[in-house]
Design a protein that fits this description.
The protein has 343 residues and is of the alpha/beta class. The protein folds into three domains: 2-81, Nucleic acid-binding proteins (OB fold (Dihydrolipoamide Acetyltransferase, E2P)), CATH 2.40.50; 89-255, P-loop containing nucleotide triphosphate hydrolases (Rossmann fold, 3-Layer(aba) Sandwich); 263-314, Ribonucleotide Reductase Protein R1, domain 1. The chain contains twelve helices and 13 strands. The chain has helices at residues 29-33, 89-94, 119-131, 149-160, 176-183, 198-205, 209-221, 246-251, 290-296, 302-314, 316-327, 333-339, and strands at residues 2-10, 13-18, 21-27, 36-42, 47-52, 63-68, 73-81, 105-111, 135-141, 164-167, 187-192, 232-234, 242-244. It has a six-stranded mixed beta sheet, sandwiched between helices. Strands 1-2-3-7-6 form a five-stranded mixed barrel. The protein has a two-stranded antiparallel sheet with strand order 4-5. α3 crosses α11 and α11 packs across α12 (333-339). It binds guanosine-5'-triphosphate and zinc ion. Zinc ion binds at residues 276, 281, 283, 286, 289-291.
Length: 343
């Protein structure tokens, strides 16, 4: 038996990546049975009709144990760990949307210039990533063009909040080793405005990677029905890790961030949240607000608080909406979002 990760799946047929390569698998009958339930029990006729649940028992991102049969084929005998991030409508209504495909990390890419980095947009990305409990890597590309002092100072703020920051140049190769290290062991999606260098960066990490990530989403568009509409591209090399295709990224966009959860999504606010005088404090103009007091004392970063205020005014749903617009990059709406004054 070998262990592996489901990287693509149609009902009944799954591609499982293992140490020995990709194995095309079917599911052992007893596992299929777990997902069947009786429709009617007509003992008179001694028949029991079964209906298979609409949901596929396996998702991309699940860890499984496989019994290889003949060359390149096998049978999935056991589900070791289900991808924790499977999306449900119920979650969507609550505003706690989980992404599909076991995605556990987003890599938010900005450039040092051309286009200039827009950190309000970064705060929006971080809020949605926090709401979905995804790790975030802040990747600043094009460092060969120089890093302005103001940007270096802002990045220090994010580092102190505990976010991983990678300074890269797809051109010179600077920082790529560090980025590879941050991708290891994760299923990551790359996000960022048009022109920041996502494609160049992916190809610098692994030749042809950008084409593989977008080729996959193109085939998804043609109506190819994979388990969750998304696939994972394995990263070669010792470090490993997976990159989710753009269909996986789009799935992140569903739903908003519940308004009551917005302040929590600013991770540095959390220690103060139970210290406001009013139980229902929105941290905008209420008396005795611990967040505003901490900002006034310089304990919380003022620009981050201003991002909070703007997002609060927009309402929680708008956060998800902006995120959706941001990731619908085919029509480059992200660019408009990034450069809308006052965003
Ligand atoms: N100087 C410099 N230029 C870079 C770097 N990375 C990418 N570029 C250039 O930036 C431009 C945009 O790069 P892309 O990789 O197409 O950007 P993208 O983010 O994939 O853009 P979209 O496909 O529109 O989403 C290209 O002209 C690249 O050559 C870098 O590290 N340094
Ligand atoms: Zn408050």
């Amino acid at each position: 038996m070998v262990e592996g990760l489901v990287i693509e799946g149609n009902r009944g047929q799954y591609h499982v990546e293992t140490a020995d390569g990709i194995i095309i698998c079917t599911l052992r009958g007893k596992l299929r049975k777990q997902f069947e339930y009786p429709v009617s029990q007509n003992w008179h006729h001694n028949v029991q009709r079964m209906k298979i649940k609409a949901r596929d028992p396996l998702s991309v991102g699940d860890h499984v144990r496989v019994l290889p049969t003949n060359a390149g084929n096998g049978v999935i005998e056991e589900i070791i760990k289900s991808s924790s991030h499977s999306f449900t409508r119920e979650d969507s209504k609550k505003g706690n949307v989980r992404s599909v495909a076991g995605l556990d990390q987003v890599v938010v890419v900005f450039a040092t210039r051309d286009p200039a980095p827009h950190l309000r947009l970064l705060d929006r990305f971080l809020v949605v990533a926090e709401a979905q409990e995804l790790a975030t890597v802040i990747c600043i590309n094009k460092v060969d063009l120089g890093v302005d002092d103001w940007l270096a100072a802002r990045l220090d703020v994010y580092r102190k909040l505990g976010y991983a920051v990678a300074l890269t140049s797809a051109d010179s190769g600077a920082g790529l080793g560090e980025l590879r290290g941050l991708l290891a062991g994760h299923i990551s999606a790359f996000l960022g405005s048009s022109g920041v260098g996502k494609s160049t960066l992916l190809n610098a990490l692994q030749p042809g990677l950008s084409e593989r990530v977008s080729e996959i989403s193109a085939s998804t568009h043609k109506g190819r029905h994979t388990t969750t509409g998304t696939r994972l591209v394995p990263l070669g090399g010792a470090a490993g890790g997976y990159i989710a295709d753009t269909a996986g990224i789009r799935a992140l966009a569903l739903g908003g961030v519940a308004a009551g959860r917005l302040a929590w999504c600013f991770r540095e606010f959390r220690p103060y949240l139970d210290q406001c005088s009013l139980g229902y404090c929105h941290h905008t103009s209420e008396p005795g607000c611990a967040i505003r007091a901490a900002v006034a004392l310089g304990r919380l970063d003022r620009e981050r608080y201003e991002s909070y205020q703007r997002l609060y005014q927009d309402g929680g749903d708008a956060v998800g909406k902006s995120w959706f617009d941001a990731v619908s990059s085919e029509d480059h709406r992200l660019d408009k979002l990034a450069y809308t004054p006052g965003v």
